[in-house]
Design a protein that fits this description.
about 190 residues, 6 strands, alpha+beta, elongated
Amino acid sequence: MTDVLLATRVKASDPTARTALATLRDRLGLADRVGSLVREEIFLFEVAPAPAAARDLVEGLARETNLFLNPNKHSWRIKTGDETIAPTAGPAVWLLVWTRDDGAALEESVHRHLGLATVESIRRGWLWQFGAVPGVNASVLLHAAREASFGDGGSRGFLVHEAWQEGRLYADRPSVYDCREAFGGAGVSTGRRG
């Protein structure tokens, strides 16, 4: 099996990310630590073919169907487990948010309508990237991202609804394998412990 990650991002300004950034800066008081917030929708495919063929299969699904993106609205990229991730400029923290079995309907659609039995599973989630304001280091940004992400039932955190979603913070952009581990339920998934 080969894991392939499809990441999509709105080409224009993302109103959801803009609203979330304004909320965490203005309402949660994180304006002195968080300078930017970017959101991607990610799809993790477990595919039977070898890596090159698996990548081609997912690229075909992205280009030839409207199940995962709208090419007029989204930019996208594909990564397999053996590809390295380019480093980012400046301090950044990533939050992966998902709901158990989110992607099952897409998986069923790929099997039923496209007849692609080689696609073993599809999982879906959101990847948020927090960028620091100038002068803020990575550990301070990580603490701010934790405050913004995981609620206390009161005035803190809103990006992960812990009653039905799971989330995990990363100091480096999560790899295909990190996403696989998270979606598979391995390890600690709440931000309070990570």
